[in-house]
Every structure is written in C-alpha cells, then in structure tokens.
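Justification of computing resources. Each target in the renewal requires a structure prediction run like the one illustrated here; the chain below, 1458 residues long, is used simply to show the kind of job we budget for.
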Amino acid sequence: MGNFIHPRNYKSFLFSRSVLKSVHSFNLSKMVLKKKKDIQVAAVIVGHQDLETLRSFADAEKENLASLLLRCVQLTDGLVQIHCIKQIVPLLEKLDGNQACDPMFQSCLDVLGRIYFSVGPKNPLKKVLASSLNGLPELFFADAARSFTCCLQEELRTTNLYSYRRVIDNISCCMENFNLGRTSIMNLFKDVLLFLQKVLVGIPEENRKFTGNHIAQTELMHDLLTAIRVSVTLVQKVQDITQGDLWKIPSSPIWQSMCGLLSIFSKFLRNDDLLQNIQSTSGLAVILLIKTLCATTEVIPGLVNHLILHSLGSSGVPEWFMSSCGSLCVEDIPGPALLFLCQGALAMLDWKNGSMGQSGEKLLLDIASVLFHLSLQLKESSLEMFLSRILVMWTHSALDIFESSSLNLKSNLNGNSDTVGRLLEYVYTHWEHPLDAVRHQTKTIFKNLLQIHQCTVEGSACVSDPFFLGLIESLLRLEWHVKGKYTCLSCLVDCVGIENILAVNKMIPSQILEVMGDQSLASYASDLLEAMFKNHKNRLKSQSLCSPWIDQWHETWVSPLLLILREGSLEQTAYIIDYYLPKLLKCSPESLSYMVNILQTSTNINTGSCHSRGSLGALMACLRTARAHGYLQSSSHVTWSSLVSSAKIKQGLVHQHCQVRIDALGLLCESHRSTEIVSVEEMHLVQFFILYNLNSQSPGMRQQICSLLQKLFGRIQESSQVLYKLEQNKSQQESMNDSTEENPSKTLQQYQDFMSSICNSLFGALFPGSSHSTKFSALTILGSIAELFPVPEGKTQAVFQLSHEIDFARVKTIMECFSSTFEEVKILAFDLLMKLPKTVIHVQDPLKLQALFRAAVDLSTSTKPYDCVTASYLLRFLIGQEGLLAALAAFFNDTPGPSPCQSHGEEPVAFVERNTLMVIRHLLENLEREISQAESSLLQAAALFPMYGRVHCIIGTFQQLSLNNLVLVTEWRHIVARLILTSYRLSAVVAPVVQSSSPEGLIPVDTDSEMASHLQMILNEIQPRDTNDYFNQVKMTKKQTHLGLEDLAAGVPVMTTSAEMKGKEGHSCDVTAQAVLVCCWRSMKGVALLLGMLCQLMPLQSVPEAPDGLVTVEQVKNIGDYFKKHLLQSRHRGAFELAYTGFVKLTQVLTRCPSECLQRLPEQWLRDVLEEIKSSNPSSKLCATRRSAGIPFYIQALLASEPKKGRMDLLKITMKELISLAVPSGDSPSSVPQVHALNILRALFRDTRLGENIIPYVADGIQAAVLGFTSPVWAVRNSSTLLFSSLITRIFGVKRGKDEHSKKNRMTGREFFSRFPALYPFLLKQLEVVANTVDSDSSELKLHPNLFLLLLILGRLYPSPMDGASSALSMAPFVPFIRRCGHSAVYRSREMAARALVPFVMIDQIPNTIHSLLSELPNYTDLCIRQNHVHGMLLQAESLFGDQSCLYRYSHPIDSLP
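Resulting structure tokens:
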C-alpha cells in the first residue's frame, strides 16, 4: 500500500560544535568548502480580497493573527514566510474560547485554508503549514475544519480539466499526516469520490484529442496515473473515513461511486492505449475495490478466481460484481490485463494467518499457473520485468501463507512438486536474461524457492535433503560461463553451508578464480566467492572455538589467490584485485600480514617480468588495495613503510610490468582518508615515478597515472586545510590522529615546494617536439592541478596556486600545443587555458591578439583537416579575451562601438557575446565569398580554400556562448538566418559529388573558360566506366581549350587521377580525386553538424513575436527537409553518416518541442518514407545499392527520438511495415522494397538505443532473413545475409573471443525457444524441408540455401539443464532432421550438423542416440556405401561423446536439474 502514499518527511539535523570540529579535522575538506545549496521556496500570493480582509482586521500593535498573516503574505521570500507560519500556532495557544467566535478569527482561518489549497504540493510551505496546524488547539479545531472543508468543496467544483491535477494533489496532501485535511475528506467523502470519477472519465477522452502530441499526452497520462493512485489511497482508508458499514448498502451514494470506480478501472485494464503503469495500477485498484466491497473475506478468493481463470460460475456471484467487472470474466482480455490482475491479487489480498482459508490456498496455486502460462506468451521487455516482479511477489505470498497452511499446500510447494519445478524452469530460462532487473528478480525467486522448500523439511534435514543435494550436483555440472550458476550457488551456500559444496569439488575456489579473467563474469564470481568464504569462516569459527582455524581458511581461500596474483594474466589479476581482494580483506583484515609475509620472502626470487607481475607485483597490489580500503593507515600504526622498504617501492615504480608500476603509484597516492598527510618520502617517490613514466605509450596507463596523481593532489589540498586549521588552533594538535613531530607550517612549505617542483617538471616536458603521450600526460596533470587548486575565495587559504607558476612563456608553451596533430592535446591545452585566471594569460595586447586572430583565420582555410581544428580552438581562446573587440575593430578598420562591459549593471561576460558575434560574422563573410568562388570552380576551392574549415570554426565558436541568455537577439537572428542559407548554398555546391553513384571516382576538370558548365561536368564525369580498359590505363591531363559535353556522353576518358591548379601566388598544385572528395564530404559534415547544433541549442521562436527565439518554426521545417533530402539521396557513407548525426539532434528537439506542428513532423516523415519504399516507384531517388545508403540512418534517427517510456507506437508501426515488406511475397513486381526493408531492419536490430524494445521482433526478423535466402535475386540474398548476421549478434551477444565454438556467445536450447517461441515451429518446418533436400536418393549434389543458416543457429545452442521437463518445447522433433543433415555432401555442413545435434539430445537419451547412429553404419559387404553418410554419422557420435562424456559419472539424471 505504501506505493500509493508518498509522505514527504523533512528532517533537520543539528550538529554540535564538537561534531563540527571533528568534521573539519577528519572528514573531506570539500564538505567544509562546498557552498551550501540555496533553497528556493516560492512565496505565497493571496488575492486582493483576502488582502483587504486581513488589513481590515489587523490591529495597530500588529500582534493579532490577522496582522501576522498580513505580514506573512506581504513577504516576497518563501523562507521568511515559513518562519512566520510557524508562529501561528503559538499565537493561537494564547487565545481563549471567547475569541473563537470572533469574525476576525473565522476570516483568518478561511484565508489559511485558501493559502493551503493554493500552494503547490512540492512547496515546503505546504508541509510547514500542515505541520503547524496539526498542533492547533482542540478548541479551534472544529472551526478550522469547517473553513478547510469549505475550501476543499470549492476545489471540487473545478470544471477545467487542466486544473484537475492541482485538485488531485490537494486531495493527496490532505490525506498525508494532516488532521484538518483528513477531516475535510471525511466530511466530503462522497463528493471526493464523484470528483475522482469525473477526472478518470474526462482525462482519457481529452487524451484522444491529442493524438500525435506526445508532450500533451504524456502530461495527461501522468495526471491520470496520479488520480488512480489517489483513488486507491482513498479506498484503502474508506473504513477509517466513513466510520462504519452504512455505506455498504447498495443504494448508498458511496457504494454506487465505488462500483463506478470499479467499472472504470476494469475498462482501463483492457485499454491498450494507456501506459502500462496505468494498467498496472488499475489492476491493483480492481482487486482492492473487490476486497472492499465484499461482505466477507471468504468470498474474495472465489471472485478473484473468476477474473484470473476467465470463468464465471452460475451462482454465488454478486450483482455488483457482474455489473462492474463481469466483462473481465466473459470477454477475452489481453495477457497484460491478466498479468496486472494477478499482481493486484498478490499485493492487495491478505495472505498471512490463513484468513482466506482453503480457497485462498487454491487461489495462490491458480495464480502461479496463470503466471507460468503468461511467461510463454509475453515477450515484451517491460512486461517481462512486470512478470518477474510478480513472481517474486508470489514467492513472498507463499512464504507468508506457509505459517498457517494446510498439508495439501505444503505438498504442492515442496521441491518435487510441479509448481516448484516450473518455477525452477523459469529461473533456468531467465537467469541470463539481457535485462538486469529480470536477472535480479530471478535470483530472488530462486532464494525464496529454497526457503519455501526449507519450510517443508523438518529440522536440520535440509543439509542432507535430496532436493538440495541434487541442485548442488546439477549446478556444479554446468559450465562456469553461465552467470546464473553463480547466483544460484551463492543462495545454496546460505542454505546448506559451504562444506557440502566443497565436498563435491574441493577445487571450486581455484576454478572460480580462473574464470575471473572475463570481466563479464568477474562480479558474479567475486560475489559467489564472498558468500563462500564468509560462510566458511563463520562455520570454522563456530566449530573450532579452541583450536586455530585461520590456517585452514588461508589454505582454502588465500593461497589460490596469491598463486594467481603472481602468475596470472593481466586481465585476470586486474579483475581479481578490483573485485575479489577488497572483499577478502574486509572479511579478514588480519590476512594481510599473512599475504605480505608470503610474498616478501619470494620477491627476490620472483620479481616478475613484462608479462607477469611476480611476487613483487602481487605485493604492490595487496598493499595498494589494503591502503585504499583503510587497512593501512597511521591511526592504526600500521603503514606501508612498516611493512615494506622504500627500495621495494622504487623497484615497483620502475618495474617492467606496467600494472606493477601503477599499483606502486596507487600505494603512494590512494588513501582511505582523503585528509591523510602526504609524507616527504611519498613526495620524493612520486617525483621519482614522474621522471620515468610521463612518456608512457599505453593510453590506459596514462589515464591511470593522471587519475592517481589527481587523488594525491586532492589529499594535499584537503589535508592542507586541516593543517591550516591546526596552525590557527595549535592547542588542538594533540586531537589529530596523524600525530606528527613536524610543525604544520613546515609540512605546508613542503607541500608548496613539491607542487612547484611537479609543475616545473610538467612544463619542462612540453618542449617543442615532445611526444604526444608526454604532452597528454603533462597537460592532463596540469589541468587537474588547476582544478584542485583554484584561486581562493574569501578567507579560504590555498597551499598552492598554479597561477603563481605561470608566466607569458608558459602561456605560450601551452598555446603551442594547439599545433599538435592530436585533437585531444588541443582540447587539454584549451581547457587548461580556460582554467587559468585572466590576469595571468598576458595576451591583451592588440597587436598580439591581431596576430593570433590572423593566424587562426589563415589556418581555417588550410587543406590539412587538423589545421582547421587548431584554428577553432585558437578562436575559442581569443573570444574569451576582453581586448579582442578593440583589436578586431582596428584589424577591420572599424570603430568598436561601446563596449558592453562599460555599461553599468551589465554582466562582466557580455564581451564574450560581442566577440563571438564579430568572429562569426567575419567567418561567415569569408565563407560566403568562398562559396561564390566554389560555385564557379569546385576544384579551385578544394585546392586552395576548402570551406569545411570555416564551418568547423563557426561550430566551435558557438560552443563558447550560452545561447539561452543572449542580449543582442536581433543581431543573432540575422546571423542565424544567414548561416542557414549559407549552409544550403554550400551543400548545393558539394552535393553532386557525395550524391553521385560513384563519389569515390574521378575528379572533375575545369578551366577558366568552363566554369559555367562546372556542375554538369561533375555529374557526368564521376559516373563509373565499367570497362577494364578504363580502369587499367593510366591517363594524363592534357591542356584543352574546350571540353565538350558530347565527349563525356560518348564516354571519352578525359579525366585523370589529378588536376593541376594555380595557387594564389601562381604556384601550381595537384588536385587529387581524394582532395575533392574530402573537401565535399567534410563540407557536408560541417553543414550537418552546424544545422543540427542550431536546432539543438538555439531557442525556438515558436511565434513571430517571441522575444528571445532565434530559430523560427519555418526554418526548423526547412532544415528537416534538407536532412531528409540528403539522407535519402547521398551515396557517400561519410556524408550521410554525418548528416545523420545532425538529423538526430534535430529529431530530439522536435520530440520535446512545444509546437504541435513540429512534434508531428517525425511521424509524418516516417510515414512518407515508408510509403515511398512500399511504392517502388521507378522515378524514386532512393538508393537501392550501398545497403540502402542513408535510408536506414534516416529511419533510425526518427525512431530513436521517440520517448522510451512511452508506448513506442512509431517503432511498432515501422517494424510491422518493414517485416511485411521483408518477407518474400509472390505478388510483388519489384524486389527493391524488400531489399530496403532488409537493410533497414539490419540497422534497427543493431541500434543499441532501441534496447530491449526491438527484441519482440527478433523472431520475425530471423524468419525474414532465412526466407530471403531462397530469393533468386542476389540483392535480396545479400541483404538477408547482413540481416541474419546482425540478428545473431543481437541474440547471442557480441563475439568476445577468437573461438568460434566458445559457449560465451551461446544459449541453451530451452532459453532460446522460451525467448523466441515463434521460431520453434518455423525452424522445425524449415529444417524438415532442408533435410528432405539433403537426404534425397538422387546422386546429384543439392545444397539448400537455408542449410547453413539453420545449422548456424542450432549450432549456437548447448544442452539445457531443463531438457525434457516440459513437452511444450521438446527438443526431440529436431533430432531426426539434424541427423539427416549430416548426410550432406558438403564437409562443412556435416560438421555443423554434428555440432547442432548436441543440444537437442536429452542427457538420458545420449547412449540410445549414439547406439542408433552406430547401428546405421553400413556393413563392409554392402554394395553401395556412401562415404559422406558414414562420415556424418561418425561426426555426430563424436560430438555427443565429446560434449557429454563428463555427465556419465552420474548413474541417472536428477529430476530437479537434469
């Protein structure tokens, strides 16, 4: 019930002065220095009439209630108003009974009521007012209740649908720990129910009017959900509110209202247009109302049984039940409605104490049967999560009812019962479900299932119980790659103890540690190990009270760990240190000394190498982990220096193995307490480390070095605050845990010297010509220093400031990093400059600024792409300089105008907007001029001034500006409009190349006399010539005075691989085909990103008179049409991929846009393109080659923008259309729509953003791909191949290793067909067709197209532990067809058939199957022996022996887990 009551309890914590001192001394100084978040409380505003009323009753002394309220409502600060409201009750306590009849008092109560109902539910004022009025003296309660009842009655008269939410929130608040509100609800209970009925009917009707407007519909749906929850809360409290059973008379208005609510909720359950949360809550409400309306408890289970079993008896059914929800019993209801009814029954009925008797036990078993049936039908991800949670609720209900259950129920719920067996089947098929929530719930189901069986076992018999022992043996037989194995074993450890598991296999700890080289299994393995060694420790301690037990525990759990730490692979040891070692030390901190002693003795013998850690590496790892988790600290007098010498640490800091060096550095930098003093020895060792490791070539190691040093600098910063405080209060020095003989001032000076030395080393590493890795490390560390040691504010003292180490030479050094060819170095240099104070940069000189600006502008036209990136960061840096405005005014010979910084009251950063505007305007003017030249000669543009650099700089410049707080709105609107039009012009120039059928082809040649025909030349000359002569001959450029288009049409090869152009200074330069193509697609990239950024960041001008909008609705529509055109027509992958990036930004904006016409655009565009694909119009410009080019990207962007928490209607419509097109049909005149559909489906199944919403369509996709393989058209078969490959990855996961037969990317047959039940009959039928073709009597070779696909899928399965437990998905029908496929004449097919046979043969049938295979072998006397048949049968027998031989040590399969 708590799901529907949302108490908002505000608690305040008061700290004593001593606690605050300890926080200053020992806790993070960030907590001390962090600014307190300002709490914003909206002030109460009352109407003019109430204000006049209070003024009329206020006394001259301003001490009565009216004066207090008047002063409160006149305040503009909500926090101060809260203080005034808290004074109301103390004032009322001073009044006597005679003043209760005073008109002033009554008027003030009315005003308080109106204030309460006018304040929003999240405003703290509402809670404070309710809390204060709860202390109202009993003398005034009746009058106050009368006033509040009148106010609530006025609220209930609301007829505006969009005000319903406010009234619902007020009703909810009245029921939350508010006596006056609760009394008001009691007085108007009938009216409240009628109002809720009106809301529940009106909102769905209004929702239907807003089809396509996702924002409005989402808001209405949330209002409806809130109304349902309030209704449920109200019904839960009906007994308390009505004070009696008089309302249960059928003629009572309350009874009729309750029946009306039941009817409404029953309709909600069947309404698929509503959100699943609404349907789920409606299911709870239906069961709650039935429970409330029933006269006796014994009747309830029978009525609920009618609902969930879809049956209606002839007698004993109340009339109100038939009229209100009888339709749920007599009509077909969807699976989700049935699921939510089961949830309601489990959540709302009282299962404890056996209050419902035998009928309640029957209902519990019937619910389980219904849930098992639904688990085979419901495959939508959200419904699967609901189902898993409901099964958990069922197990909890079963545990509750066990306390007073009958013997019949106990027999139906023991480990050998059918119900528990089906629960186990659900666990086995869902323990590796792709949804984390389902896997977590599966673990809870298994844990509760064990408890249920435990309740049926007497005393301590559970240890030797056959059910538990069978589970242990069966689980241990499974492969260690099965994640569910770990969770189930950890649950069994708690039930039966670790001894019983180790008795089966003593090598389990070592086996689990071996598995931890796989990151996907590391967390599961560490959790299982933790459960095991904790259980082992507790049992050993309890059994060995006198004798030492720790040695046995070390031998079992620590010794295997040390062995792997010394000799294991890098991945394995890394995951063991991260996941397992901290848990081991937490369980037994005293084991650290044991590990250190063992490793210390062998460090001289086994120091390790570049491939293994050795004993030294293992020692560093153990010490680092221990210190990071608080087991090595000065407060306990156990530090690393007391366990290991500095020489060993130095040896680790320069070890051959990179991870050993990182662990040694981590030992120095990490600490459990961030205020721990950094010793001088640690500082020297860190300096020693930086000297040799700054130039690390491993990106991962560089990241770890920078992260660890950042932690060290954080310790210095935070401990320095403690030292400053100690210096101010030297008398408190003895209270510190870090007792140091040195003076705090001396330690602070050592800190300053150390940081200064580090900065000198880092700046010294940034010399010209230093490697990328050195620059990356140095800039990253300097950035961390600048961030951790900012300019102090107020009285805060700083131990170090980076600005004190900066001069102009070092600023120049940082700026020289912009010339690096690696963009990440440019980013780090720019971020570092932005973190420095403006006073230390020293580039305000106009001449310096002009020189830098000129260099940036020149770089923006470079033909080297990384130069324009340099120009972008240089311009972004210059925009932040206040003197740029005047410098550029002199540069352009223009008057600068009034500086925005000079006007009084203007923000100090206003110059950034002015600078940005001027820079973008200059870049735009140059770009427009260059586009005009490119329209005449694209070759000249590609050779001399590629335009993508200008666009890239414009995009980067915008990132320095907050576009939602602009001052120069008019100027920006003009600039944005010009940018959009210029983008269209640039796109028109380069589009013919990227939209060509062969954009990677040859270059267009133009001369000055041919500029007019330039675009037509491009279109003709880049067409492919498919003759060998054309591509084999080397052609040279010839000077021509005229180039006729008729020659091009005739196919005369007038093109070359390069063309000579004259530069600005008359120097000749070659223009290659690659240069033209790079220029064009990079320009298209820039245009796409620019338009996408404008739509995403610019405020929308939804109406012409909007004051702050920069982009109009019409401009957004035009941008959308632009993206649509280029995504659907571009051939060059780089062009349409980047257009897709911009289009995604646009679609995200459209989805959240308040304009209804823009919201509908994605759906309209999607329907248009699907219709165009279906039509297969010969005049269509859609690209049918190149995997449909940009069409899949276009549809991906439209679907990915759809809100994931909604109903995903667009995805459902699209998948239905595409699957119908992808499945072959004989009446289709063209195969082009099928090719498009297959290519689009491939892209959608690969899109991770669609997540589990795409899983319900996997089975249909597999069918389309398999059937597409039989098409006579090559394009269809090719697209089917690509789709099939994507689906295999989507089903079985991304390949994680080189082993094709690894079980990491496989699935049990039971799980596969449970998740995709539609594939069971389809694959069986297709396999039969294939087998008939392979095993024909004709000697002619016949290879069915689908043979490989079917065997590939079936070969990805492996034996399931539940094979044979359910006949619905039996694997047996596949066996004869797979065996016949082994007769294929193709060796690869026989091999795959042998592998595919294994998961379909049950364990107890393996001997019979092998015997049958061997018996079919021909005799040597036979006249006709087919060697392929013999070989295929032998391969199948070998596969059965190889995969299942480990199972034969068991005499018979265990029923619970075969």
